[in-house]
Predict the structure.
Amino acid sequence: MVKKYKVAIIGATGMVGQRFLTLLDGHPWFEPVALLASARSAGKKYPEAVGDKWAMSVPIPAYAKSITVLDAEKDAEKLVGKVDFVFCAVNMKKEEIKALEERYAKLEIPVVSNNSAHRSTPDVPMIIPEINAEHLEVIAAQRKRLGTKRGFIAVKSNCSLQSYVPLLHPLKRFGLKRVAVCTYQAISGAGKTFATMPEITDNIIPFIGGEEEKSEQEPLKIWGTVGNGAIVPATSPAITAQCLRVPVTDGHTAAVFVSFEQKPTEEEILSAWKHFAGEPQALSLPSAPKQFLHYMAEENRPQPKLDRNTENGMAVCAGRLRKDNLFDYKFIGFSHNTLRGAAGGAVLLAELLAAKGYFD
Ligand SMILES: NC(=O)c1ccc[n+]([C@@H]2O[C@H](COP(=O)([O-])OP(=O)(O)OC[C@H]3O[C@@H](n4cnc5c(N)ncnc54)[C@H](OP(=O)(O)O)[C@@H]3O)[C@@H](O)[C@H]2O)c1
């Protein structure tokens, strides 16, 4: 790719925004030129705006130090003609986020979003690039609805399901019938660290607002089909989920139980995982893991501490595949929630959009 696309990050001071900042430092295709957040941060240089909320293990990238943060709501027009698209990860009310993202799209600035606000909008594609790249087709219908030529919104899915949907996907050929999943989710998924969430130390919180509904419903949109300018969700498998917040910094774990129409052998499951690859691998996108799904044979893996950075946090790990008494099989899934599950997944989606000409 010859052209370098200019990008802005909306929500740049947040947990996901900080990941965007570090992932885009030296990115071969994308150059961050503007950073936006709330009115609280606007007008300040980025290091002052983010202050002690900076939670990455590396320092603030040099390019960001001299950038003055803009107000995402008031300064949208300032980006027109200056950026090719924006990444968006903000903590606002759903209706406010919907309006904000549509506003940017209508200014002909494509939006690649981490927010959940538009995930159920039928003509907004919700993409895990290895799984449903073909859903990008629906953007044509969305542009028609919005009255735009370039502007559109594309979203990535919730972080919880990144730890099990990619592992179930290659098994669809055996007819996924029923899935039960329990997720053990890191505190960075709530935009928190141990310093800002002291109540999680020595504890588990058995409720994450809205997470179980997303974990059960979003996979069906991802496995849906494009028809009449909308994504028509799949009607199976039946999925039930429980989501718990656990004292882990980064990385969501999932305990998964699954039944099939035609029960595969363990070897067939392992082979399906080993040989699975999608468009990011075929197109050699810069952030694509070489091997998307990693099976770990040791019985005490995957673990957040040991495995969160597998393939720069962009791979999905699995372990402990075995037969089950009530379902056919059970296994453990794992993925990095702010990398594959949030900013990294969005950067990979943007790379897919760029490779397919959606930003031109
Ligand atoms: N953390 C994860 O693993 C994860 C995974 C997937 C999706 N997400 C989603 O990503 C989004 C951001 O999550 P996060 O964890 O990064 O949240 P966060 O750490 O709380 O950051 C929120 C960001 O939103 C900005 N913001 C708040 N109100 C705003 C307003 N009125 N106008 C413009 N910007 C505003 C904040 O700016 P100020 O600093 O100026 O207040 C900050 O930059 C959420 O929708 C979340 O559901 C998060």
Observations:
- The pocket of NAP is lined by residues 11-17, 37-38, 40-41, 72-73, 89-92, 114-116, 159, 188-189, 191, 337-338, 341-342 (CB under 6 Å).
- Residues 160-336 form a domain with the Dihydrodipicolinate Reductase; domain 2 fold (CATH 3.30.360.10).
- The two ends are 12 Å apart (CA to CA).
- Residues 170 and 194 are 36 Å apart (CA to CA).
